[in-house]
């Protein structure tokens, strides 16, 4: 299995970020891991990458409840970006609110990117499964 | 010398005075006139044949014989004449009658002249005679005719005339002259006479007629005009008859009659006849004229048209044979009798039935009237018939209505009383009166109006009397009657005055026993009152409207509601009480209900009165029908449901609150689960790492992280606890809190913090302003907002927080205005007060402060609004509910 060039983690919880990073490195799945503490930082950076023609992350781990810009707001903006190829977006949340599932369904229908929905905690097996190029 | 001429002219003297010769004898013999020569001895010497013939002496020898021998005798008179002649004295012509030997009388004009010889000696007498018998006879005849005509013309005014052809002499009698209007001495001649005739036809006709009469002997009778001497035109009939003598015309005689008056009379008669005919024929009546025997002389066209007959079918027939009688014989006899009686001078009249041309029986008012001539003698009968179909029908109707009246009179439940107006005596009454009063007809004659009437005040009686006298009627009005047994009862009386033939004033009164209606009236009043009481005490607004939606009846509840008196409401409509919109809606409902005849039931309506107050009603409108099932309005019933409405609203509010709370709870549950789960997930993950981790350093890092996670969990639990505490203490006691002081206190607590941040608090709140709040919450809220304002200060500016307050409706609104970073409300507005939502890259932001603040404000029934502009600052407004 070939390594993924770039993975990005968007989460305000440092423990979660630590966990995902650790698992990715243990499995040696990604060449580069970027982390952002909220959607705003992430979308700003990714927009820059798109503008400058850089390769954007192929797999995104996205938290929903974040300050400043939450996961849904990020997704909204991300889908507006002119992105080449399919990106795999893994929503990782501890929310069991039905509203969030509905939002996921809605976004899935809006895009050709692959969007997945996972509840925390995330195990190594999950990581292996969801960290594949879409 | 004697010549023939002398002889011819009768110059006998010269002739005879000559020498007598044989020829003389011969000459005398041939003389055309009857002549005889007598000598002194009265012996005939010479004689003409004419003389012999005239005296018819042909069979006698006369020459040489004496006159006495020839004529039988010579009268003394004649002898004297003869002697005179011998003495030379001539005598005038004289007339003598001669009777011949057969006894025929003949008349002669006789001339005796002396006979002279040559020496003028009288030697004899010459007798010349002319037989004038015919002339005399004609004259006598004419005289007789004249006498006859004269006597006749005196009666008939017929004039006469005669014309002597020989003498060309015309004579007019007096009447003829009178008719010509000439003087009595006027002497007409044939030419002047003709000139009296009117020029033209008349003159030509008469000239022709006279000419023909003279030439051909044709008598004439001509009707023509003459113009009299005085210039008047008259119409005459003139006749002429030629008179002949021995085949020779000797004259004309005729008559002359003025017919002008009779002509005029005739014209007048014709005119009158015409008038009479036109009247006679155009009369609406059937008219016929009969002779005294009943034979039709005349019949008018009305009768002919009616019967479809022609004049000739009727004239000359007997009156009773006319087909139009629907006749058995005895009727015929009756008619004969009628005609006979009329002919004796009676005027007969009766109603009979005749048949028209279609054999329909028609009632006729028929009469026969005698007509008298100037001698007062009946000479004809005038029969007249007038169709009285309508009259008969009217009479039948009258009879029917009289019968009806009779029946009504007797069967009516109303009493009828006929009384003498002046005396009050009761003359008649009907059965109803008997039944109600107990009086019977036996009491008629003694009973008076005064006996049955409970006498009211004198003024009342006087008033009734006056009313009758001026209006010929009175009433209806209530009076009291007394029964025979003395009990009194109320009656409704009215009356009208009628006059009878004798000038007695009679009063027809009707009296209706109203005891029962009085009772039922009372009952009705009672029921009405009950009903009124009922509807007035109903806790419902009740009203009745007419077709124009004007109120006809309203109950007390409705009056209380509109706040007016009954008289100010009746006749008015909704536009008078409510605002335009409410009234319009109501009118539409009314119209629909009255149109569809279907009731509108329990409809929620809102009435806005003119003063703006609003009331909710549950209204029913039910169409109101009259006896003929025609809609005449509607009944309305309204229940004031304002209270219910309010309760309902409150309930609604409560439900809203509850559902909000519920939502909040669900939300909170999610938050709790999310937060707890995120921590437990971290624990789980970290522990996983820790178990399999061999690197000590890494292990320590993981343990440190576990401890952090543990701290976070604890903090989360505390936060949750705090929120739960607020949410479960919804009904915390609110107390009056001096807002200004509270701000001061918070400021005091934050002194160090404020100083560190170089912040300024401006407290603009009225020092006396009190709010109702849970004191601890108020403090927490103030603390939170003030610290937030400074926490998110604009690094370029000195933080300034301005607090002010104002009353707004049921709230006291506290405004907290800062000059900080501001929030992009578009982006974050929804989540501003959410739990664990932070919006600034501030490490101190925990996302819990506003969430708790909001919960506290809501726990006190308040609310929070926010206005913000990024880079300029934010203003929060906290609404403290002052009511509950």
From TrEMBL, chain A:
Q: Which Pfam families match?
A: Response_reg (PF00072)
Gene3D superfamilies the UniProt entry points to: 3.40.50.2300
SMART domains, sorted:
REC
- Record domain Response regulatory: where: 6-134
Record's InterPro entries?
CheY-like_superfamily, Sig_transdc_resp-reg_receiver, TCS_response_regulator
Give the matching SUPFAM superfamilies.
CheY-like
Q: Which UniProt keywords apply?
A: Phosphoprotein
Keyword Phosphoprotein annotated: yes
List every position bearing 4-aspartylphosphate: 63
Q: Does the keyword S-adenosyl-L-methionine apply?
A: no
What is this protein's record name? Response regulator
Organism of origin is Muriicola marianensis
Species lineage, top-down?
A: Bacteria, Pseudomonadati, Bacteroidota, Flavobacteriia, Flavobacteriales
Automatic annotation (TrEMBL), chain B:
Q: Per the record's keyword annotation, is Transport included, yes or no?
A: no
Positions of the PAS domain: 272-317, 527-597
Query: Domain PAC, which positions?
Result: 89-144, 220-271, 348-400, 475-526, 601-653
Reaction(s) catalysed by this chain, per the record, are: ATP + protein L-histidine = ADP + protein N-phospho-L-histidine
Keywords attached to this Swiss-Prot or TrEMBL record, sorted alphabetically, are: Kinase, Phosphoprotein, Transferase
Keyword check for Ubl conjugation, yes or no.
no
**Entry-linked PANTHER family:** PAC DOMAIN-CONTAINING PROTEIN (PTHR43304:SF1), PHYTOCHROME-LIKE PROTEIN CPH1 (PTHR43304)
Q: What is this protein called?
A: histidine kinase
The organism named in the record is Muriicola marianensis
